[in-house]
Amino acid sequence: MSTTRFYKIQKGTETFQKVADMIVQIRAANKAAENLAIEIGSTGQMIHSDHYVAGGITGFEFYQQPEGWRKASKHFHGYYFPKSGKENKQTLNAIYALPKIERRTLSALIGYKGIFSQPGIMERGEYVLVVATVGNMGSSIEPTPDMIEILGSEYDELAKKLEEIA
User: Which superkingdom heads the taxonomic lineage of this protein's source (predicted)?
Assistant: First the structure.
């Protein structure tokens, strides 16, 4: 049986700083990927491997399939990836050179372990909020000492405030 746990990480703590630094890296990696997507003529929308929170691009959205590209996935209509070959070597090298940040790296910062699920993390301003499903297919969390467990109702209230900041 799985349960959902909620945490708050206050600004000024070690875990807050680690998560905030990681989020800066994620945003920079996503911006680099977005810039590449636009540079190659895509709509700017991408899909990436489930193993990554940033990078690991597996497809770019186009209105029409570009010549020399293949469908990225049967599940994502309109997304394509360059075929291997010298005509796409430069584009492929640019894709593979994009920064990558694995989900497990972010999860490790807050003590989360899980193969099939990942924690939700929101950060803006004075705190970080974490929501984690535990007990699902072996997922667990061993929160860091500066993570404060809170009620779901408090999480909802704080999350609403964070959304207003955005």
Answer: Bacteria
